[in-house]
Structure formats: structure tokens, C-alpha cells
Design brief:
The complex is a heterodimer of chains A (224) and B (392). In chain A, 30% of the residues lie in helices and 26% in strands. Chain A is of the alpha/beta class and 224 residues long. Classes of the chains: A alpha/beta (224), B alpha+beta (392).
């Protein structure tokens, strides 16, 4: 479960024009729930996801994930939390261009003390799940947009996290690939993983599985 | 210790991004090669000099007139020998013979037939069992450098010295000294004492200087005082002066190189710093991606540290090995002219391999610390930035 209470994020707080990215945000997401954060660019949805993923620290407020307060975690603990609990899918995929699909999927495990066989098995499973196994040895720079997206999903899944966070996941996909992505998302949801998606793509308004749409404007939640 | 998965990933990124690293490795290897060559050369020269000076007499005295060295009377020998603590006193005829057409000069050394120590040493060097024909007064022994010089001027079997009265003295080439690490002997010509006296136009009761040893080091300063009291016109040179003069000369040349090296190194480090700074957005983005995937700042720094360390170590080993081959196998063509430059015969010597591990360690530390700092500081700055920001 994710519990957010009184969350504020101000960029450049000491400048003459501070930017209030989040204003008193409160949200509860049950385990296994799929929440779509919708809103125009600059509404604060990406910032909210970054804070839930402990990529950024809030100015004030509480974020409790699985009973653990993560808002002010020091770097080492925040990294451990991300590694253990969060799988991130970026808008521009965020792949390491010089590596192959398999190597990209291996990257989140490289800083963990796991055996080679264990890593190989996890990577295999994740690539299978994301339907990208057939491209395992291909350099990611040679992949299509849809394939890059599946590689990014496999990488997000490889640590077997409880929460999958997607920031504008279909922004760089055509309609056919967006639909394939939603199919994949559906199977991930079916496994009981919590899914948080920041998007303004209307395709997410009618997902084929239970979900909740949370609308944001000017850093506030306006509709839950 | 990093885990096997970390090492696999490290080697993977190094291999996959080799085109990114190859330029850095090349420049690093070149810089290490240059610095190690200079330090190997300097170290070998100083080592050779230390050995060489060890075999030289402790003191050399000569007569001065108006601040100019002149011929020394042989009669000084008796009075000097009478000073307690002095041994192995030897009169010498040593000087530079100028070869005017090319403005070159040879170091001419006259050897006495009755000087057993010099004779034995000479026999050993040239491998001759009988030196009698050499002492006949019409032969000369030359160094490899002089032999090559004479050959280049078509003197293959003999050479004619110009005497003070303008006549020519033709002498046969008896033997060539073996090529070695002897820096002083490079332009040496050895003749009999009588021949040297004739060529330099010295009287029978004169020598160029007188050498002797003082086995008790503690007495050296006392001996200098006694000699000064004995003769008002005496100049005393001891081995320490020569050692100091050579050390200053090579330290000066090595120091110049070091300054040039530091300038180049600083420039290189600045380029590296820029390279790993904010300019390369791909590098920034990759670090941000790793951070978002659960890598801590320490993990990122560890990856970049090992990556840079492998580059430094590889470049250091390659550069040092190339430096060793260049100096000790190929005799440092090009560089030797700068270090042993003189208006005389070009040096033709082999450097005796001598590696001071302290020097080698200093090169490594000097380079590695700068390199690692140039890489890790910008990486650290990117790593501490919120990954979202770093991903642009």
C-alpha cells in the first residue's frame, strides 16, 4: 500500500519565483491497484511519481510505502528501496544504448550480490514476460520503439518489484504498440503488482482491467 | 569486494564502450611512455655515473695561473705523497684534443706503460694480451663513438694528430673500446703517455694533473686544507664535486621535462574533466538511468572508479613497458641527444637497465590520482543530482 499525506514539492524555494510542483497532495493506493495519474504537462504527475520512487525528496509531507516512510531516506536506503520495490519505465525508455537487450535487463541486478545463475534465470523470466526474449542479443539501438518499450518493461520487472511506475509510457509509441503495451500491462496487473502511470494519453481512459484515474492540475489532485 | 555480477557488468561496459575509451587509453599510454622514458633514462644515467664515479680517483689536483688551469709540475707528486692519508698518487695527462675541421673534440688520455692498474684494466677492456706495440707510441685506442666519427671522415685504420709545431703525427688504430654504459668514455682516445705529451706539447717534467685517493672520508676536508697550504696555486677537485655537477645537470634536464609533462598532464586532465562533466549528455543520462534502477551514488562511483582504474593501470603498464623497450632495448633514439647533448661526438652507448621502484610508483600515483579525480569528480556531481534532472 502507498499512503501519501500533505505532500508538497517546491523547486527553487529561495528564489523570487519558486515553483510549486506539488501542493498538499494526499493519495492512497492499495496493493495491486492500478492508478492512472492524468493531467496536462506541468500538472505535477511526474514529480509525484519521482517522489514515490524516491528519486526526489519532497519539500514536506509523508510518503509511506509498505509501511516504510520513504520521503527522507538517505541515498543508500533510497537506492535499496528502489532496487527492491520499484520498477521504472521512462517516457524515452531510458535504455543504455551501447548494450544489448539482455545486458540492459541485467543492469539493475549488477549492483546486487546475486549468483550468475540466479541473475540469468531472472533476466530470462523478465524478457519472456515482456515478450522480448527473441531480441535478447540485439543491441537496443537497433530496436523499434515498441521493442525498446518491451525491453524497458523487462528491465523494470527483473528485480521482481511490487510497484511498477510508468512515466508517459506511450508518448513515443504508435497506436498499435500502445495497445500491445496495455496488453502487457494487463498481464502485469494480473500478477497483483501495483501500477502507477503518469499520462495524458486518452488510451488509458478505457483500460481492459480495473483501474482508477486520478486527475491532477497545478500540482493538486482535483479528482480521485 | 565487488560481486561477480558487478565485475561482469564492469567488463561489459568497458568492452562495449571501447571506442569511447580508446582515445583516452592512447593518450594516457603516450604520456606514461614519455614520462617513464625520461625517468628511466635519467635514473640509468645517474646509476651509471654513480658506478663510474666510484671507480674514479678521490681527488684531482691541477695548477692554476690567473684562474686558468695550466700544466702541473711533476715535482708536486713527492710533496703531495708526503701528506699522511694519501694513497695511489698518479700523474695524468688528460685533455681535450680539438679536431678543428669539424669543431669536435676528443677526450685524450695518456696511459703510462708502468701504471699496472690502468694497463690491466685496458687489457681487460680491449681483450689484447700484449699492449707493447700500443705503447710504441704510434697507436691509439678509441671509443665506439670516436671510431664511428673517424670512419665518417674516412679515417679507417689511422688518424693524424696535429702537433703544436704544425706537423702531423700519424697513429694506427690499435683497438676499439667495447660499447657500454660508460658516459665519460664516449669520446675517449687512449694513447701512450709519451704520445699524449707530444700531442699536447708538454714538457717531460709536466703533467696535466695529479690524482690520488684518500681512503678515510673523514680526512677529505683536512687534506684539501693541507694542499691549499702546500701550494697557493693549486685547484683541488674531489669526487663529490663531480657527482654534484652531473646530478645538477641531469636533474635540470629531467626537471625541464617534468615541467613540460605537468603542463601536458594538466591539459589532459582538464579535457578529461570536461569530457566527464556536463558536456556529454549520454554519460549523464546513463548514470541517471542506473540511479533510477536502484544503483546508489556509491555504486555508480565504484563502477566509474574501477573503469578509470583499469584504464589507468592498463595505460601505465603499456606506457612503462614501451618506455623500458625504448630506453633499454632501443637506447632511446631522439631522447638521448637531449639528455646527453654535447658539441662533441654523438653518444653511442647502451643504457644499463635500472628501475627505481620508487620512481615507478611515483609515476603511477602522479598520473592515477589526477586521472581518477578528473573522472570521479564530475561523475559524483552527476550522481548526486536527482536522476530525473540528470535525465533531462
Amino acid at each position: 500500500m502507498i499512503e501519501i499525506e500533505g505532500l508538497n514539492k517546491v523547486y527553487n524555494p529561495k528564489s523570487s519565483e519558486p515553483l510549486h510542483a506539488l501542493r498538499d497532495v494526499g493519495l492512497t493506493v492499495a496493493g495491486g491497484e492500478c492508478v492512472i495519474l492524468s493531467g496536462v504537462s506541468g500538472s505535477g504527475k511526474s514529480t509525484l511519481l519521482s517522489i514515490i520512487a524516491a528519486l526526489e525528496k519532497p519539500t514536506s509531507g509523508k510518503v509511506i510505502v509498505g509501511g516504510e516512510a520513504i520521503a527522507k531516506l538517505p541515498d543508500l536506503h533510497a537506492s535499496h528501496y528502489r532496487s527492491k520495490s520499484i520498477g521504472f519505465v521512462f517516457q524515452h525508455f531510458g535504455l543504455l544504448e551501447s548494450l544489448s537487450v539482455e545486458e540492459n535487463v541485467t543492469a539493475p541486478l549488477a549492483n546486487r550480490r546475486l549468483g550468475r545463475a540466479d541473475i540469468a534465470a531472472r533476466v530470462q523470466r523478465a524478457m519472456e514476460h515482456a515478450s522480448i526474449l527473441h531480441k535478447a542479443k540485439s543491441p537496443v539501438r537497433e530496436l523499434s520503439g515498441g521493442e525498446k518499450q518491451r525491453c524497458a518493461i523487462a528491465r523494470a520487472l527483473v528485480n521482481e518489484p511490487g510497484i511498477i511506475i510508468c512515466d508517459e509510457p506511450t508518448a513515443n509509441l504508435d497506436t498499435a504498440n500502445s495497445r500491445k503495451f496495455i496488453e502487457l500491462l494487463s498481464s502485469i496487473h494480473a500478477e497483483g503488482k501495483t501500477i502507477l502511470i503518469a499520462t495524458h494519453d486518452p488510451i488509458f481512459d478505457t483500460l481492459p482491467f480495473p483501474h482508477r484515474i486520478v486527475r491532477m492540475e497545478h500540482g493538486r489532485i482535483v479528482e480521485k | 569486494m565487488p560481486g561477480s555480477a558487478f565485475i561482469d557488468f564492469l567488463l561489459l561496459t568497458l568492452a562495449r564502450e571501447k571506442s569511447k575509451h580508446i582515445g583516452v587509453v592512447f593518450i594516457s599510454t603516450l604520456m606514461i611512455f614519455l614520462l617513464s622514458s625520461v625517468l628511466f633514462l635519467s635514473s640509468s644515467i645517474q646509476q651509471s655515473l654513480t658506478g663510474l664515479l666510484g671507480a674514479q680517483p678521490d681527488f684531482v689536483v691541477t695548477r692554476m695561473q690567473g684562474g686558468r688551469a695550466v700544466n702541473t709540475p711533476k715535482e708536486w707528486i713527492e710533496k703531495i705523497a708526503a701528506i699522511e692519508g694519501i694513497s695511489s698518487i698518479t700523474p695524468r695527462i688528460v685533455g681535450r684534443y680539438s679536431y678543428y675541421p669539424r669543431e669536435e673534440s676528443f677526450l685524450m688520455v695518456g696511459i703510462d706503460l708502468f701504471d699496472e692498474q690502468s694497463n690491466a684494466h685496458l687489457k681487460e677492456l680491449v681483450g689484447a694480451t700484449d699492449l707493447r706495440s700500443f705503447y710504441s707510441g704510434e697507436s691509439l685506442i678509441v671509443s665506439e663513438g670516436v671510431r664511428k666519427f673517424l670512419e665518417s671522415h674516412y679515417y679507417r685504420d689511422d688518424f693524424s694528430f696535429k702537433l703544436p709545431d704544425g706537423k702531423l703525427k700519424k697513429m694506427q688504430l690499435f683497438a676499439t673500446l667495447p660499447k657500454g654504459g660508460d658516459l665519460i668514455a664516449n669520446d675517449m682516445v687512449i694513447v701512450s703517455m709519451e704520445a699524449a705529451r707530444e700531442i699536447f706539447g708538454m714538457g717531460a717534467d709536466e703533467v696535466s694533473d695529479i690524482s690520488f685517493n684518500v681512503p678515510n672520508d673523514a680526512e677529505w676536508d683536512t687534506i684539501v686544507t693541507k694542499l691549499s697550504l702546500l701550494y697557493y696555486d693549486i685547484a683541488v677537485t674531489d669526487k663529490r664535486d663531480i657527482a654534484r655537477a652531473y646530478a645538477n645537470l641531469y636533474n635540470y634536464k629531467g626537471g625541464l621535462f617534468l615541467i613540460l609533462y605537468i603542463i601536458s598532464l594538466s591539459t589532459f586532465m582538464m579535457i578529461l574533466y570536461q569530457r566527464y562533466s556536463l558536456i556529454f549528455s549520454v554519460e549523464r543520462r546513463d548514470i541517471a538511468v542506473l540511479r533510477a534502477m536502484g544503483w546508489s551514488i556509491a555504486d555508480v562511483l565504484r563502477l566509474k572508479f574501477y573503469e578509470a582504474f583499469i584504464i589507468v593501470l592498463g595505460s601505465f603498464l603499456a606506457g612503462s613497458l614501451l618506455g623500458y623497450i625504448y630506453v633499454f632495448w632501443l637506447d632511446a633514439p631522439g631522447l638521448v641527444g637531449i639528455f646527453l647533448d654535447s658539441a662533441n661526438i654523438p653518444f653511442d652507448i647502451s643504457f644499463v637497465p635500472h628501475i627505481d621502484l620508487g620512481t615507478l610508483g611515483s609515476i603511477f600515483l602522479f598520473f592515477a590520482v589526477g586521472f581518477l579525480a578528473s573522472v570521479l569528480i564530475p561523475v559524483w556531481r552527476v550522481a548526486i543530482t536527482a536522476p530525473k534532472e540528470a535525465m533531462g
